[in-house]
Design brief:
Blueprint (H helix, E strand, L loop, with lengths): L1 H18 L6 E6 L5 H15 L2 E6 L7 H10 L6 E4 L1 H8 L19 E3 L2 E6 L3 E3 L1 E4 H6 L10 H18 L5 E4 L7 H8 L1 H5 L8 H7 L5 H17 L2 H6 L2 H9 L3 E4 L16 E4 L11 E4 L3 E4 L6 H13 L1 H10 L16 H11 L3 E2 L10 H17 L8 H13 L3
Parallel strand pairs: 1-2, 1-3, 8-9, 11-13
Antiparallel strand pairs: 3-12, 4-5, 5-12, 6-11, 7-9, 7-10
Helix pairs in contact: 6-10, 7-16, 10-17, 13-14, 16-17
Length: about 425
């Protein structure tokens, strides 16, 4: 009987200890850059092993997954993300009730690009990003085009024609002057990035005049007319198939293969150029008729922490280590090919477009990113389809619209915000 009692006690202790086993710590990151999905997973796994945390990275972006739609589904699911991404004030207002106050975090002392609202720090800058008109040095040299002179619409019109003449003379029928996409699924290229030219080109970095007007339902008509001329020029010389039906891989792939003189994309595409054997750089977008001398540079995306997360402390540690550890620096610069937003990073990007962004930024030649301060969805969902119709019109599709209608529809949608 005594032996039986001891056995029962032992079994009770075993089950009690099993029931008291520490719960495994997890951290879920939901992010929107398909270009860094693999390397972020690798970094997060290594960080998790070193810190006793299982880190899961979920990615939704590019032309196959709408981040804005999917993040809503994530918050409605049983397992909400602990870290997620917002882009500017529009994203913040969408999720304000879910975002943790990060004031006082160590990483905030080594950057000037944190996301702040009314003196409160909420967002960790993912990277400094930029875009202009990416160009293939070899093609421009062969066609006799000097990229330093590309500061006006007239200069671009002449350059585009010269490049096409070079292609024709050399029998390069598969080559294109410009790789740009404007179809559904790529409206972030047009309704956000391209439209940002209307919001910031030619203005001082802190000049929010045009975005403030837009959010009040006001249009700068002369400026919009000049901008529409630039869009027309791009659509006229863009590869028609890519313009009307191409996705991200089509657009970037054409340039990466050395078969496009120009690309309408940013330095986040650098991971696509591992096998590219030509030099590349950036020239300004000629949004205004003349006087364009800078490219668009900013910290558009921010990691934020879910204030209802049970793993908030681990999420804070993850961000602090990312910003200020050798492993974090190596990941950002050498693996993710980013331009970090933190002053303690001494590594220099070796990838071509990130290096170009850094050079333009160091020379003080930057126009601001204001597109993410528009109302949520306005750029991609409201303006984007108008660009697609205009692209069809410029290329001769009867279902499209002309420049006057493009201007009229953009004007009407801005005025509806008033």
């Amino acid at each position: 009987m005594k032996k039986l009692l001891l056995l029962v006690v032992a079994m009770v202790l075993v089950f009690t200890l099993a029931g008291c086993k520490p719960e495994e710590k997890t951290l879920v990151i939901f992010q929107n850059k398909v270009e860094i999905d693999e390397v972020l997973r690798d970094y997060a796994e290594a960080w998790g092993e070193a810190n006793g945390v299982t880190v899961e990275v979920k990615t939704c972006g590019g032309d196959t997954c709408a981040y804005g739609t999917q993040i809503l589904a994530e918050f409605q699911a049983d397992e909400q993300p602990d870290i997620f991404v917002i882009e500017g004030m529009g994203g913040f207002l969408d999720y304000e009730d879910k975002i943790l106050d990060l004031s006082g975090e160590d990483w905030a002392d080594i950057t000037e690009l944190e996301f702040v609202v009314e003196g409160v720090t909420y967002g960790f800058p993912v990277a400094v990003e930029g875009w202009g008109m990416a160009y293939n040095v070899d093609i421009l040299e062969a066609a006799g085009v000097d990229p330093d002179g590309l500061t006006s619409q007239a200069a671009y019109a002449s350059a585009f024609a010269d490049i096409q003449a070079y292609y024709d003379a050399e029998g390069m029928g598969d080559y294109t002057v410009l790789s740009m996409a404007a179809a559904s699924g790529m409206t972030w290229v047009t309704g956000l990035h391209n439209f940002n030219g209307y919001l910031s080109a030619g203005l001082d970095y802190s000049d929010s005049t045009i975005i403030d007007k837009l959010n009040n339902g006001e249009v700068d008509a002369p400026r919009l007319a000049e901008y529409a001329d630039w869009v027309e020029l791009l659509f006229t010389w863009g590869d028609e198939t890519i313009l009307l039906t191409g996705g991200y891989d089509d657009q970037v792939g054409k340039f990466a293969d050395g078969e496009a003189a120009f690309l309408h994309q940013g330095n986040w595409t650098d991971s696509s150029y591992t096998d590219s054997d030509f030099e590349m750089g950036y020239a300004p977008h000629a949004v205004m008729a003349t006087g364009n001398d800078s490219i668009f540079i900013g910290a558009p995306s921010f990691y934020v922490i879910n204030k209802d997360s049970d793993s908030a402390d681990d999420a804070k540690l993850f961000l602090n280590d990312l910003a200020d550890s050798p492993e974090g620096h190596d990941y950002m610069v050498n693996d993710a090919h980013m331009v970090p937003a933190f002053s303690t990073v001494t590594l220099v990007p070796s990838t071509p477009l990130s290096a170009a962004v850094l050079e333009w930024n160091n020379n003080g030649k930057a126009y601001a990113w204001w597109q993410n301060d528009m109302p949520s969805g306005f750029g991609m969902d409201t303006l984007g389809p108008i660009y697609e119709l205009y692209a069809k019109g410029v290329t001769g599709d009867a279902s499209g619209i002309d420049k006057a209608e493009f201007i009229a529809q953009i004007t009407a949608e801005i005025e509806n915000l008033g």
